[in-house]
Amino acid sequence: MSQRGEAAIFRPMEIVPAFPPKPVYRLVIFDFDGTLADTFPWFATVVNPTADRFRFRRAVPEETHFMRGLDARELLEYLAIARWKVPLIARHLRKRAEREKDTFRLFPGAEAIVAALDEAGVKVAVVSSNGEETVRHVLGPGISGRVDQFACGAALFGKARKFARVLAQQGVMPREALCIGDETRDITAARRAGIACGAVSWGYMRRDVLEAARPDHLFDAMEEIPAAVLEPVPPAHAAAAQRMA
Predict the structure, then answer these.
(1) b (16+ CB within 10 A) / e for 150-181
(2) What is the pTM of this model?
């Protein structure tokens, strides 16, 4: 669950290469909660009222570190949440998030990263369990206008299907896409869809747990993402191209 110390997430930068880089991936699919947006402070205030409403185990602050090490299935078991309740709880949280969306904040650097990818010719999608209206509102018109596709309202374990649909609609092969999220279920869904996976260490799950899941990329700062997505043109090639210009 979200780590403090946002200063470690994004260091001021200017992504303006001397010569346009070549994209390694044609499509980057971002998760929203815990990846682009810091929604954990909100989640921490609503989890126990939700537990009382749907009759599952309450969370206590002392368990936060432990719970951040659990994957989605382990967390359901630990909180004693019956599987049949999951869609009901998800719907309830989506509606509440929509009402309280003004309390959400983007992680520093999120807008710059999406802009850099878009300007490099990389398609951008957002796949989230949250509602599309909430996601668009928090991203704002600047980022939303750079997103090629939103696929929101995903079931807890339904992201792989959303990924496959985005690939088909964007005309991108699985090997040309990268998913970036903050949970091991994002990694699992990416592998099921046959796409590369990147994990961010500033979200809901602990870094050590994400690392153990062996994602293709593990990001500790926002500005590390373009280096994995964009391949700089070798200096010799850049010089030759500039001489031809």
Answers:
(1) bbbbbebeebbbbbbebbeebebeeebbbbbb
(2) 0.85
